[in-house]
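Hi C.,

You asked whether I'd gotten around to modeling the 280-residue construct. I have! Everything is below, sequence then structure, no commentary in between.
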Amino acid sequence: MDKKISLGILGGKLRSSLSPLMFEHYFGRFKLDISYKLYPVASDMLSFFLSKTRTSDIIGLNVTIPFKEKIIPLLDYLDPEAKIIGAVNVIHNSKGRLKGYNTDYTGFLKTLDKYDFLKTGNALVLGAGGAARGIIYGLSRMKFKNITFFSRNDEKINKILGNFHFISGLNGEQWKIEKIKEKMKNADIVVNATPVGMFPLENKSPVEVDFALKKKAIVYDLIYNPKVTKFLKLAKSKGAVVENGLWMLIYQALESLRLWIGEDLNEEFFIKSSTEVLNA
């Protein structure tokens, strides 16, 4: 890298994001002339922001709520898997050309490698937004027999079922707590892909886990701040193996950096330094 470059995270409200800490820590340790900033943008300013990005020194952006789906029509290129998923969490600005990718699903899958006891029978996903799309696709790559997702939005349910028509065993259902609890009791993995449990909803859980869960069921919350959400506390009290979104954050960030700076990336050290700062 022969000139200063900028990276950042694009979203609506970014108060809870730990991405700047993780990236800046890595860049500082390697004395790289790269900055990573927060870019909170109003929905009606998204197009304007991206037009300015094309001619700026910003070469890469992570994308979070609420833009993972909305941003797609504004990009010049969509990676084939991001196109299938229908959500983008990484943008690479290549000489004014904006390219969209999805590293959420790869980060998610990587975190599950350590669970050699995980059965690929029944999966349950709470939510139907951009993050949920990546999770559903990742679960399909793992060959889960049944994948059920819940949403309050019929349009989102129908859109996901249409986009993922090739996934056999995929079901979309209206958000009804008793139905969710019924499905959770027999699930091998449950993933919270909603923002419930994150600031300012730290004291809430998408579901009150007041029932027994399947033996060795994994309950996974994509939220990483706070590290232990109310949802995870409740699930752990019922015997579940719990996982927060920290390692998914690290692995998807690693894939992001690979797209942005390629051979300049020290993968092993990035994981080590990210773990240090996020656990501090």
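If it helps when you're writing up: The domain at 106-244 is CATH 3.40.50.720 (Rossmann fold).

Thanks,
B.
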